[in-house]
């Protein structure tokens, strides 16, 4: 007769195998609109039949530092990309932005690792904090941890990005001055205020230079925020390839929400409704005078050209 420890060890192995099989089956069945008793049974088995009361995330896997990070940019489409990637069964991600490499570095590496979800073999850990891309200290701090981290940068036309950034800020501060007042250091001369964060973030080439001092270009994937809206499956497919993942997230997972003007995830199995991004996405932008936008576009043109050369990709913003 087997000893109690051997029985427990065998049960753990069976549960682990059942959980892995459940993950694989869910990847194929989660989005076809049909329930699967087999998957449910496997999941229940992996959780110990519901009797132990111990969440599987506390029993299996381990907390690891992220192998991939979405480092930018604010109002580029980072939240959408992360939510789309989380559909993949081999992606585990922190929901909130950790801000470790910009705000909380003093808390130490163990604090950072404890924020991470537990992962099984074959799964990757991710996080996203868009402000990393524009934080001078972030590249050296991240490289000190792991210079092999894969870096994803979601970029968007810097003019529309700046307006979107301003729009978000104005919802939190209704008394905010107009965009055209804030964007100029000297309005009569048409001098753009590069210290205003809404402008500064869009100077992508300048920020990328800081990162390339610590990471090779091969560490980066530049995702088009525009194509993430017009062809989400195509852009997410590129990301899955970059991360070494099987292309599981595909066209069948998306539909376009005409009201919001953004793609949404179709209703997953067991859910009563589709998953769309929150109310903060797809806000109506304020009217900005055409001459103001033109001056801003002219300001960004040399930065865009340099960014195209550095990244090896022409995003067609001009």
TrEMBL record:
The active site is at 75 (for sulfotransferase activity). The lineage of its organism: Eukaryota, Metazoa, Chordata, Craniata, Vertebrata. One of its GO terms (molecular function) is [heparan sulfate]-glucosamine 3-sulfotransferase activity. It is an enzyme of class 2 (transferase). The keyword Transmembrane helix applies. This is Sulfotransferase. Its EC number is 2.8.2.-. Keywords: Disulfide bond, Glycoprotein, Golgi apparatus, Membrane, Signal-anchor, Transferase, Transmembrane, Transmembrane helix.
């Amino acid at each position: 007769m087997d000893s109690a420890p051997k029985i427990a060890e065998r049960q753990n192995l069976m549960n682990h195998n059942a959980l892995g099989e459940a993950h694989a089956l869910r990847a194929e069945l989660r989005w076809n609109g049909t329930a699967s008793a087999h998957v449910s049974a496997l999941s229940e088995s992996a959780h110990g039949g519901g009797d132990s009361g111990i969440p599987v995330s506390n029993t299996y896997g381990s907390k690891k530092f992220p192998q991939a990070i979405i480092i930018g940019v604010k109002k580029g489409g980072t939240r959408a990309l992360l939510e789309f990637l989380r559909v993949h069964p081999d992606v585990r991600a922190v929901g909130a932005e950790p801000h470790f490499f910009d705000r909380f570095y003093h808390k130490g590496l163990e604090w950072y690792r404890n924020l991470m979800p537990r992962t099984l073999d074959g799964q990757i850990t991710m996080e996203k904090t868009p402000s990393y891309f524009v934080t001078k200290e972030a590249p050296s701090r991240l490289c000190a941890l792991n210079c092999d981290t894969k870096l994803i940068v979601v970029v968007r036309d810097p003019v529309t990005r700046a307006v979107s950034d301003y729009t978000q800020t104005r919802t939190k501060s209704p008394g905010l001055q107009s965009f055209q007042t804030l964007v100029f250091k000297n309005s009569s001369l048409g001098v753009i205020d590069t210290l205003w964060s809404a402008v500064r973030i869009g100077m992508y080439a300048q920020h990328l230079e800081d990162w390339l001092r610590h990471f090779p270009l091969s560490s980066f994937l530049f995702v088009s925020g525009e194509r993430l809206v017009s062809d989400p499956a195509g852009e997410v497919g590129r990301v899955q390839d970059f991360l070494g993942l099987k292309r599981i997230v595909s066209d069948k997972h998306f539909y376009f929400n005409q009201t919001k003007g953004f793609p949404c995830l179709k209703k997953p199995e067991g859910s009563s409704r589709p998953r769309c991004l929150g109310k903060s996405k797809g806000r109506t932008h304020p009217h900005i005078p055409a001459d103001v936008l033109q001056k801003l576009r002219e300001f960004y043109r040399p930065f865009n050209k340099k960014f195209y050369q550095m990244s090896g990709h022409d995003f067609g913003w001009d």
